[in-house]
Specification:
Elements lengths: L2 E8 L1 H5 L3 H10 L3 E8 L3 H7 L9 H8 L4 E9 L1 H9 L12 H5 L8 E3 L3 H11 L7
The protein binds adenosine-5'-triphosphate (ATP) and magnesium ion (MG).
Length: 139
């Protein structure tokens, strides 16, 4: 498989506690190239739209509160097999279950406050990159 793009978000827990730089360095050390990056303060409408697939789940309202609680850093990332490799590098949703050395094992606080988001499919990666970045930013 050739070079691919995916989206990561460094979430408010990690950004607010000054861990964004370490997480970006970790991603670069795993071979991801930063195509585009931007700090964003999501509003409720934006967070609900981004996580629309989870609407109706018991954790949805709390997730939206968390994601709007502070600044996030959105990253369009590129490497071979980027979608699958980024999911491996971030680790399981719950840091207690994340493999040692993964970003969530190293930096996440809890299943909700888990430091980083990653797209879960190539189709979602395309949609999520377009959610945050204009085409002109992605050359
Ligand atoms: P993300 O989509 O942020 O990369 P993920 O794909 O590992 O995370 P999802 O199932 O898509 O996990 O859940 C989205 C986010 O919702 C999680 O990253 C976490 O912040 C929160 N979340 C998921 N499940 C729970 C739960 N049971 N309790 C609290 N928060 C949860
Ligand atoms: Mg997900």
């Amino acid at each position: 498989m050739g070079s691919e793009r995916t989206l990561a978000i460094i979430k408010p827990d990690a950004f607010g506690s000054g861990r964004a730089g370490k997480i970006v360095a970790h991603l670069e050390s795993e071979g991801f190239r930063l195509v585009a990056a931007r700090t964003v303060r999501l509003n409720q409408e934006g967070a609900e739209a981004f996580y629309a697939v989870h609407r109706g789940k018991p954790f949805f309202a709390s997730l939206v509160d968390f994601m709007t609680s502070g600044t996030v850093l959105t990253l369009a990332l590129e490497r071979k097999d980027a979608v699958a490799r980024l999911r491996e590098v971030i680790g399981a949703t719950d840091p207690a279950e994340a493999a040692p050395g993964t970003i969530r094992a190293l930096y996440a606080e809890s299943k909700e406050r888990n430091a980083i988001h990653a797209s879960d499919s190539l189709d979602n990666a395309r949609a999520e990159i377009a959610f945050f970045f204009a085409g002109v930013e992605l050359a």
